[in-house]
Amino acid sequence: MLLDEPSNHLDLESLIWLEAFLKNYDGALMMTSHDREFMNRIVTKIVEIDGGALTSYTGDYVFYEQQRALAAKHQQAQFERQQAMLAKEINFIERFKARASHAAQVQSRVKKLDKIERVEPPRRRQSVAFDFAPPPRSGEDVISLKGVHKCYGRRTIYEGLDFHVRRKERWCVMGVNGAGKSTLLKLVAGTAEPDSGSVSIGVSVKMGYFAQHAMDVLDGERTVFEMLEDSFPQAGQGSLRALAGCFGFSGDDVEKRCRVLSGGEKARLVMALMLFDPPNLLVLDEPTNHLDMATKEMLIAALAQFEGTMLFVSHDRHFLAALSNRVLELTPEGIHTYGGGYTEYVARTGQEAPGLRS
After folding, report:
1. pLDDT in tens, 150-160
2. Does one domain contain both 69 and 199?
């Protein structure tokens, strides 16, 4: 079985079902994935493609990370030892090459150096950290939904929803497909209106909203760098290039026109546009879809330092566990809130997603 990013666009329940199925699958499986939890539970071998070379590791993704780091450490130590030895030999040659009394020794060492197989330093992985500028402080009350009703045709999504978000809370929204996760985010962002009830945003709240359709706002004829310049005309070229580099656009990549960008590249560009001048409320709908592992890790590290408020939907369990401190669970029986983050939610409910509970 060959699977190319099988976890993209699956809700958490479907992802966990697929996980269980693949664990018990009797055949051979080869896949690409950017979901570390998914890989940790399924794969027994990792093949890394780097600089045209393939390296195989036996184990899950965590084991691969550990072994790769260990191999790099050993290679760096070996490289430094050899460089010290080479410097010593070259210093001897330079010092005594003009002396006839040392000619034989010098020639011997020159031949020795010619025969030595050089140790290369380990490849430096490009991982650029993104540092948030401090967002402006919002009021204590950030989001308030009161008595919200929302239907699509005959289908009722919300019936009298009350929900309140305070400053610095990080709510992850859980629920099966169709439970109303994205609808809630749209109501908060103002891209959907409640049929009745009220949705209000607090004092001094500056919102950044990321959803898949947000990528449609990119001008296909503008380059990546032009989009950044258009959005931030006061910023210097150096800081914009650094921003582009953080989100995976290095070298000539900044000259790509938006119409030729992949889904992942578009998502990274929209994220960069949203985070350079940071809002104090982030509303994120599946922000890690299409992101490669390095960008996802950078984003998690950056958001962990974010000083504002977050409301987000994600099926990436690593993302959920790393960033949430509140859980809003949408179920057919009603709405439940949990004071801890996703890890505490799993411990309390005994399940990784609401649709798994019997």
Report:
1. 999 999 999 99
2. no
Are 216 and 348 in a shared domain?
yes
Bridge partner list, 174:
329
Question: Count of residues for the chain?
Answer: 358
If asked whether residues 145 and 102 sit together in one domain, one would say no
Sheet strands (E) in the chain = 2-4, 30-32, 45-50, 53-58, 141-152, 155-166, 170-174, 196-201, 207-210, 281-285, 309-313, 326-331, 334-338
Q: Which of 338, 212, 10 is nearest to 349 (CA)?
A: 338
How many domains, the chain? Answer: 2
Tell me: the pLDDT tens digits for 44-72?
999 998 878 899 999 999 999 899 889 88
Cα 47-52-57 angle, rounded to 5 deg: 20
Model confidence, pTM: 0.82
In Å, what is the CA distance from 314 to each residue of 18, 52, 177, 308?
17, 33, 12, 18
